[in-house]
Amino acid sequence: MFKRIIKKITPKRILDLYRAARYKSAQSPLLNADKLRLIDLALKKKGARSFADLGGMWRVNGGYSVYCSDRGAERVVLVDFSATPEFLNEQSKRKNLRYIQRNLALKETADEVNGVDCVMLFDVLLHQVQPDWNEVLKYYAAHTKLFLIYNQQFTGARTVRLLEQGREWYLRHVPHTPADTEEYSDLFEKANEPHPRYSDGRTYRDMHDVWQWGITDHDLTRVMRELGFHIVYEQDCGWLPKIEEIRNKTFMFERAQPQSRANAAHGCGNHV
Question: Counting C-beta atoms within 10 Å of the first and last residue's C-beta, which end of the chain has fewer, N or C?
Fold first, then answer.
């Protein structure tokens, strides 16, 4: 009872800071409070008990999978190209946490994940080409009832392939540092050459390492509606410093019941 009272009177920002700080550790020092809040909503408001964390290794060592595992999920699957020692150490302590070493964007990977309550795509969707982001969503739509998405959304008029807008425009719309100069030079100068790190013949312009898409809210919502999902939660998480026309946003999409699909286009705003 006391804990519930404290939670009710504590400002959301303080709760978010506590949530993130509690799970910042040696293996996952960079967890984002908005993403953790999205997971908590799925667990507590939607009763999600199984999760697929797609591409969740980079920078956080599978921290969101670990969080799900510790917060009541019965089954968690993390899919990525490789696993860090920190994640493998945490996995060894948990029977409900599985790792699949595969390209998350393949239909056969989605088929292997199969039958989860919730699919998580955190900072992942805008990287997906061949297949494109909308195809990836289609692959997983048949295997879940909820999508949790945290993405860098494009505020322009329509969804664009970022690289096709030209080098100067591209660099104004993506985060980069002087240390990235060689990587981005290769991206344009070797655009159509096979990238040596990929075994599928992928070219430099189609590599997953860089931002590929500027996805608008309208197009994301439209694609999800066509797949039978509607918005039940949406949160604007703010502009990215020094990056033009890009805002961080979180979304929860839920599979619509037949009687509610007619209203799917309206979404539900910032609530569940």
Answer: N
Claim: this prediction has a pTM higher than 0.85: yes
Q: Among 97, 120, 101, which residue's Cα sits nearest to residue 109?
A: 101
Picking from 118, 124, 30, 17, the residue whose alpha carbon sits closest to that of residue 68 is: 118
Q: How far is CA 107 from CA 8, 135, 139, in A?
A: 43, 9, 5
CA geometry: angle at 250 spanning 60 and 172, to 5°?
80
Q: Please, what is the end-to-end C-alpha distance for the chain in angstroms?
A: 23
Q: For the beta carbon of residue 71, count every other beta carbon within 10 angstroms.
A: 16
Which pLDDT tens digits describe the chain residue by residue (272 residues)?
A: 544 554 555 555 555 555 555 656 545 668 999 999 999 999 999 999 999 999 999 999 999 999 999 999 999 999 999 999 999 999 999 999 999 999 999 999 999 999 999 999 999 999 999 999 999 999 999 999 999 999 999 999 999 999 999 999 999 999 988 777 788 889 999 999 999 999 999 999 999 999 999 999 999 999 999 999 999 999 999 999 999 999 999 999 999 987 544 444 444 557 67
Q: How far apart are CA 113 and CA 90, in angstroms?
A: 20
Burial class (CB in 10 A: 0-12, 13-18, 19+), 15: middle
**Which domains are seen in the chain, by residue range?**
2-175+211-266 (3.40.50.150)
